[in-house]
Amino acid sequence: MKNIVVLVSGGGTNLQALIDAQERGELRGGKITCVISSKPDAYALKRAKAHDISTRIVPRKHYPDNASYSKALHEALFEEYADLIVLAGFMTILDKRIIQAFRNKIINVHPSLIPSFCGDGFYGLHVHEKVLERGVKLTGATVHFVTEVCDGGPIILQKAVEVQDNDTPEILQRRVMEQAEWKILPEAVSLFCEDRLTVIGDRAYIDHKEEQTQ
Ligand code: GAR
Asked: Can you give the residue range of the structural domain that contains 49?
């Protein structure tokens, strides 16, 4: 059983999707063992506590820079024996210390179809504002491995979502979450925990063997 540590900063609806999947028995091969928040008041912490999942707070504000923050976070992840780290609305960019220590063991959910609307400055609601400004007809979500390149790691799963003419950023964000993020994040976590993901170069490959034999 792999130890899944989920990093959060906010509302935690993606964490909730993982908890719900776990309770339905859909996180095969893994268990959420700890939720770590960069913000003491993140609602995600309440969600974890409501399901008896242990929580830790490593507050970003207590550290002068990303390097010292990453050192503290690294220690916490080490103490938690993390096999898989899930960034679920975690709003701090990890430095190379953690990325190297947990190579191909950190996954992130991003609210667009990467490589569109991603990289520095594209997070949370801003992504959906930019999508509406540009007028694209399709957006969606991506789950990918985290590398040193912001939003640039191997893509595990993507799902497209339609943009509608009268969308506001908030309405679009909700649709992307409901139709894409909350589905593909638990699915990707399950694939990882069942050892069905392989990274070769810049690409992640899914082992579909099990589905074919069913
Ligand atoms: C989600 O839409 C997630 O994809 C996004 O923040 C939101 C967090 O919501 N993450 C990023 O933009 C990371 N670049 P949640 O706290 O309710 O899961």
From this structure: 1-102
Domain end point (choices 64, 85, 102): 102
Decide which of 63, 80, 102 is a domain's last residue: 102
H/E run at residue 55: strand 55-57
Q: Is 110 a catalytic residue?
A: yes
Q: Mark whether 93 and 116 lie in a shared domain.
A: no
Measured in Å, residue 117 CA sits from the centre of ligand 1 at: 14
CA–CA dist 11, 47 (Å, integer) = 9
List the chain pLDDT tens, one digit each, 214 residues.
999 999 999 999 999 999 999 999 999 999 999 999 999 999 999 999 999 999 999 999 999 998 899 999 999 999 999 999 999 999 998 989 899 999 999 999 999 999 999 999 999 999 999 999 999 999 999 999 999 999 999 999 999 999 999 999 999 999 999 999 999 999 999 999 999 999 999 999 999 975 655 5
> Position 147: which residue type?
T
Give the three-state DSSP class for 130. Answer: helix
What are 90's two structure tokens?
Answer: 């975690």
Of 181, 182, 184, 185, the one to substitute when testing ligand 1's pocket (max ligand atoms within 8 A of C-beta) is 181
What is the residue type of 143? V
Residues 125 and 207 in one domain: yes
* Ligand 1: centre distance to CA 181 (Å): 9
